[in-house]
Amino acid sequence: MDRTDVGLKAVAKALTDVIGPSIDPKDPLAKEQLKLAVDYIEFVRARYDDIHARERFDLKHYSRMADAIGKSGLPSSEASRLAGARDEAARTLADVEATTPQVRTAAMELAAVVADVVQKAPSFGSEVRHKIEIAVLDATDERVAMERAWYLPMGFDPTPQLAGDLAELLKG
């Protein structure tokens, strides 16, 4: 049984109860840094169980973006390269035993190919470039919605009631 949550809780408590009182009261920066560290540990505790789902979201996100970009009329060499990366991503998504690091690596590899194609978009002609731009913009909405929900526990969102449901967004 995984005890990561218990360990993180113990670290946060030790920082708060043992380290905190030993900080020089005349050092506000140290107090602030301690609070930030404890808050981030609590954030990790809140999101720990969702990390694999987040990595799968990333892979699905880049797969959908690659699908849309692949329909933009790319030159055949770029279309083939993108299709190969997309196919590899699909194999990883279909593998129920794919580990979190494997899913993360597949997402990063696909993201790198997508980013390279996007950077080359101006050389593909205005119509193809425009379709690629639309694909990127369309994909941005789901990314922003998920990131907003993901970081909600940090308390920075001025309108948290408008954030989407993380579990639903991660299903992507």
Task: Please give a structural write-up.
The chain is mostly helical and 172 residues long. The chain has 2 domains: 46 residues; 122 residues, no CATH class. It contains 7 helices and no strands. The radius of gyration is 21 Å and the shape is elongated. The mean pLDDT is 96.
- Rg, Å, rounded: 21 Å
Give the tally of β-strands: 0
> How much helix is in the residues?
over 70%
The main pleated sheet reads as: none
| Category from helices, strands and their pairing | mainly alpha
Low-confidence stretches: none
The overall average pLDDT, rounded, is 96
What is the CA-CA span between the terminal residues?
A: 28 Å
Order of helices and strands: HHHHHHH
Shape: elongated
Query: Helix tally?
Result: 7
**Number of self-contained structural domains:** 2
**What percentage of the residues does DSSP assign to strands (E)?**
under 5%
Summarize the structure.
This protein is mainly alpha-helical. Helix content is 76%, strand content 0%.
Tell me the layout of helices and strands:
Elements: H1 4-22, H2 28-47, H3 51-70, H4 76-94, H5 100-120, H6 126-150, H7 166-171
Attribute tags:
172 residues; 7 helices; 76% helix; elongated; 2 domains; single chain; mainly alpha
